[in-house]
Design brief:
Mean pLDDT is 86; it is low at 4-39. The chain is mostly beta strands. It is globular and about 55 Å long. Strand 11 and strand 12 (163-169) form a beta hairpin. Helices cover 10% and strands 46% of the residues. The relative contact order is 0.11. It is built from four helices and 28 strands. The strands form seven sheets. Strands 1-28-27-26 form a four-stranded antiparallel sheet, with no helix packed on it. A four-stranded antiparallel sheet has the order 2-3-4-5, with no helix packed on it. The chain has helices at 2-22, 24-31, 35-39, 303-306; strands at residues 50-52, 58-64, 69-74, 79-83, 86-91, 98-103, 109-114, 121-126, 131-134, 139-144, 154-160, 163-169, 179-182, 190-194, 199-204, 211-218, 223-232, 235-238, 244-252, 255-262, 267-270, 280-282, 286-292, 314-320, 327-331, 339-345, 348-353, 358-363. It starts with a helix and ends with a strand.
Length: 367
């Protein structure tokens, strides 16, 4: 009898061990769900005027109106063009560790930053002939200049023996010496963006943990001007011509301010919702903003969003610059739309969906 009981116990443990082995993955998923599934479920596009443009995962994109096409930098550094539903590889060069994409205002060129995120290398891609041109290794940062005299040239922060110099790179010349504007700018860990003709805006990297400022430099008289007080989490985004901006800042813990400003930093109007400037497009008559339906109190902007600690599900609003009523154009519902970098092309709003890093379009003609 004892032998029979022992035999039954051994069989029972064997069945339990086999079941645990066979269903181990299911057990793990039950108690420890995949972080990837929690943070980035795949979008389910079921909205009639919302369209997936490409299955390719991308890092960034830009519009080239001359070729009437969208150009995109894929996650592995290749460059593709998308036109009339067709996708074409323009450059099959693989680039690892992408950091930054800076398209020129006319879409004819693009600067790609890669390598070390704190000090990337930069290379120029030319749409006209699909050629590449490396930028100086001493380059710290770059911004396109949009002025009558220097259209298509680059403002560059160059690391020299005397400090961080501000120089102009003339792209029309292959082996020319850069024009040095300022020997030591006194600013290092900053972003540069275009803001109107002959004006460059410098902003510090944003975080709710410390105060950041914004300054403009007029390339005609080389005068610096502060266009924003020191504020926590400060981020700006500018219209294509640089004369209109959005300013985001943290006012109190979990309290934020989003306002329209001009290129001198003067207040125009406060927007009645919370979103980040990279989720908005500024046109002459209106701002188009993708706005998270809710932001949990456990998340803090801008850091948690920029670090992809959470994903949003968005509403899309059109806000007139002047008089007029704000309109909601899209409620993503359960479609998992977290839009960034919206741009206007053929009366459609193009954007990257952070859930899958793919390119989508939203048709504005039906609204």
């Amino acid at each position: 009898m004892k032998i029979l009981k022992l035999f039954l116990i051994i069989i029972l443990f064997g069945i339990i061990a086999f079941s645990v082995y066979y269903y181990w993955d299911a057990i793990l998923k039950l108690f420890y769900p995949s972080q990837e599934n929690i943070s980035a479920p795949q979008p389910q596009v079921k909205i009639e005027n919302l369209k997936l443009l490409s299955q390719t995962k991308i890092f960034g994109y830009w519009i080239n109106e001359t070729k009437n096409a969208i150009f995109a930098l894929t996650e592995n550094g290749k460059i593709i063009s998308i036109k009339d539903g067709d996708e074409k590889i323009e450059s099959d060069q693989v680039i690892a560790n992408l950091v930054k994409l800076l398209p020129s205002p006319d879409g004819q060129k693009a600067i790609i930053g890669f390598g070390n995120a704190q000090r990337p290398q930069f290379s120029l891609f030319n749409v006209a002939d699909n050629s590449w041109r490396p930028m100086p290794l001493e380059t710290v940062n770059l911004a396109w200049i949009n002025s009558k005299n220097q259209t298509g040239n680059l403002a560059a922060l160059i690391d020299t023996k005397n400090g961080i110099a501000l120089e102009i790179i003339d792209l029309s010349k292959t082996n020319s010496t850069n024009t040095k504007l300022i020997n030591d700018l006194g600013l290092e860990d900053v972003e540069m963006v275009l803001s109107g003709n002959d004006v460059i805006v410098f902003t510090e990297r944003p975080s709710y943990q410390y105060y950041g400022g914004a300054w403009s430099l007029n390339l005609k008289d080389f005068k610096f001007r502060q266009i924003s007080e020191q504020e926590p989490g400060l981020i700006t985004n500018w219209s294509k011509d640089g004369f209109l901006g959005l300013k985001f800042s943290v006012t109190l813990p979990n309290s934020y301010n989003l306002a329209l400003i001009d290129n001198q930093g003067a207040f125009i109007k406060k927007l009645p919702f919370v979103t980040l400037p990279e989720k908005c497009l500024l046109e002459q008559d209106a701002a188009y903003c993708f706005v998270p339906k809710e932001i949990s109190g456990e998340w803090t902007l801008p850091d948690d969003y920029l670090q992809k600690a959470f994903y949003s599900n968005d509403l899309l609003y059109r806000v007139p610059i002047g008089e007029g009523e704000m309109r909601m154009l899209l409620d993503a519902g359960q479609n998992n739309i977290d839009a960034i970098n919206p741009q206007l092309f053929e009366n459609k709003l193009i954007f990257i969906n952070r859930y899958d890093n793919r390119l989508y379009s939203f048709d504005l003609s039906v609204n």
